[in-house]
Amino acid sequence: MEEEFLDLFFLDDSDGIRFPDPSLADADGLTAIGGDLSIPRLLEAYRIGLFPWYNPQDSPIWWCPDPRYVIFPEEISISKTMRQTLRREVFRVTFDQCFERVMRACGKTPRSGQSGTWVSRDFLEAYTELHRLGYAHSVEVWHGDELAGGLYGVCLGKCFFGESMFTWVDNASKTALITLARHLQERGFWLIDCQMRTEHLVSMGARGIPRADFLDYMRRNEAEKTPLGSWAHWIL
């Protein structure tokens, strides 16, 4: 039994960037431990439905929870208060203007079960490189000339894999997510991966779907072309 656990969960560098089948993840979604944050490994992980989540002092841990929380862009929930906020143009929204700054700000946002920043140097370098290559993108929300909130994630095919968001001014992160969903809907994207359930995301329209359904989306997404490059020209 112990040998099966080792074979299933612990990555062997001699295996290259091969991952276990995400459908075999345990009840919490744990799929694999080990490896690194190399660009080929990260892209392979997202391609098959995995994401990394771990403390900086630990080895990489790869997850595929069940259910998987997603937002279908056409189902984004906009409250009456948010409609008023958007109508009043309280914020200005940009894309891909300061990716690293957004990522660092997200790293300062507390996560359940973690203390300190979860954005290690390796994490920052890896996703900044994904951004340089045109796979990772940020949404920035400005209040006047000050950064007020935002989010970042990875795009493959017709799916956007949200990694994290932050807000320093009320409703800023909601503005980022709503704006992203509108743009993705216009471009025919299928879903925004939210990874796991939070009350904030549920209030924005996130819902859990069975892991098997999510992995089916991933298989079909392999045939879709990824729109590489900057999204800086996206304007609401």
Structure report:
It is built from 8 helices and 10 strands. With 236 residues, it is of the alpha+beta class. 33% of the residues lie in helices and 22% in strands. Strands 5-6-7-8-9-4-10 form a 7-stranded mixed sheet, with helices on both faces. A 3-stranded antiparallel sheet has the order 1-3-2, covered by helices on one side.
Low-pLDDT runs of 5+ residues are 1-6
Order of helices and strands: HEHEEEHEHHEEEHEHEH
Order of strands, widest sheet: 5-6-7-8-9-4-10
- Supply the helix-strand structural class: alpha+beta
What helical percentage do the residues reach? 25-40%
Give the strand content: 15-25%
Labels describing this entry:
236 residues, alpha+beta, 7-stranded mixed sheet, 3-stranded antiparallel sheet, 8 helices, 10 strands, 22% strand, disordered N terminus
Brief account:
By secondary structure, this protein is an alpha+beta fold. The chain contains 8 helices and 10 strands.
Topology:
Elements lengths: L1 H8 L20 E4 L5 H10 L2 E2 L8 E3 L4 E4 L8 H8 L4 E4 L3 H9 L13 H12 L3 E8 L2 E11 L2 E9 L4 H15 L4 E5 L3 H5 L3 E3 L1 H11 L15
Parallel strand pairs: 8-9
Antiparallel strand pairs: 1-3, 2-3, 4-9, 4-10, 5-6, 6-7, 7-8
